[in-house]
DNA sequence: CGTTATCGACTACATGTGTAATCGAATACG
DNA sequence: CGTATTCGATTACACATGTAGTCGATAACG
């Protein structure tokens, strides 16, 4: 089992999931928009992810190329599962009900989910 | 806007959402099963929640009776929304797809969600 | 070849979090 | 009435996290 990914680390992972391998500078550049971190910050986060064995680094001359060891789908599955377990007793329908109450479901969403469910029953 | 509720604090909140008002000792007793915290730990968490104005305390003789200031539904809505935004671009259908892939949807779940959606369209 | 930019490694430091221990006041028990 | 228990408040302390700065080595530039 891999260790916890913090919020800031998650931002780094998103960059690596979008494309990899990348150097620290690449990652920093991709995150510059949203987060405005210094390159040092990005390097620290990469080191921590490396220590947690959530990414791997391959040496390329003087620098490293980083790549994810954990797939985005695995991460997303874990996080979704945790939320469901913590807040909804592991059941999805209360979540759907909750989101409906928040008006976070568009007609398109509803149609899409219905199609998905129909697929599942088939 | 209220502040962040940590994992440990969330456990305390669940006790208070289930019943309130409660004394620190009551809360500790209810959490004894799952977490096995010392009473001091529970008191610290209550103090922190109080400082964050997530709960309120009403004095009752020498001790306090604690009650939530933030409803469970509000908390749950916030957490669900954050997860959806962070991992699914704010859309629900990819989450459903994800959970389906994990086999976390029983036939009952599917039926229930379909009923919910039908309701929403009406 | 000398200077500057850059690399990874190490260090820093405030704040949040988990998990209590201690303390002085008050109360309950005997 | 004296002692043990309990209360809330204050303090403690290690580890996680966000956010860098510094340092010694090296590479790129002029």
UniProtKB/TrEMBL annotation, chains A, B:
Keywords: DNA-binding, Transcription, Transcription regulation. InterPro entries: BlaI_family, WH-like_DNA-bd_sf, WH_DNA-bd_sf. Signal peptide: none annotated. The keyword Transmembrane helix does not apply. One of its GO terms (biological process) is negative regulation of DNA-templated transcription. GO terms for molecular function: DNA binding. Belongs to the BlaI transcriptional regulatory family. This is BlaI/MecI/CopY family transcriptional regulator.
